[in-house]
Amino acid sequence: MKKIICVLSVILSAAYSLYYASLGGFKEGNSGALSKIGLSHPLLFIIWGALTFFALCCNITYGYSKTKYTFYRYLLILSEIGMILTLFFHFDYAERTQYFIHCTGSLTFSVVTGITVLLLFALSKKYVLSIICGAVLVSDFILLLIFKETALIELFPIFSGYIMLLIYNLRKERDPLEIK
Length: 180
Hints:
By secondary structure, this protein is an all-alpha fold. The protein has seven helices and no strands. It has helices spanning 2-22, 34-40, 42-65, 72-88, 96-123, 127-147, 151-170. It is globular and about 55 Å long.
């Protein structure tokens, strides 16, 4: 049942994310950023953030349930605080304090969630997923520096995380061979 919830949450979140991002027309620069779209559609932005966090949280929690580690809970709380700040403070240059808090929240959510997923793979000794996760995080950072925020660049690590977490969570663990 938990696997079904993980898969359905990702499908729902991914579909909604594409719909939501299409409201900005996938424009270049900050005008197509998810947060900028949220200025025109605040309720839809809150729904996007809630679905995104829920899908990631379900999959991260299920992934860590296969391990002995529990520290991830504190990281998820930090990530949630970041998402709440992102959703409830405006991405408006004119309101400097709101803008600063929004960007701090967005950065906190992104970095903490990325680290949480990377640590899951590394601690589980899934080194290929660890390397891919690290490459996605670094390449997304480089793309943001070059092209600024766009919905596609912002969704790239989220969708990559969905795919990697589903691969990790749905993969059947092999039983160790017994030597007689």
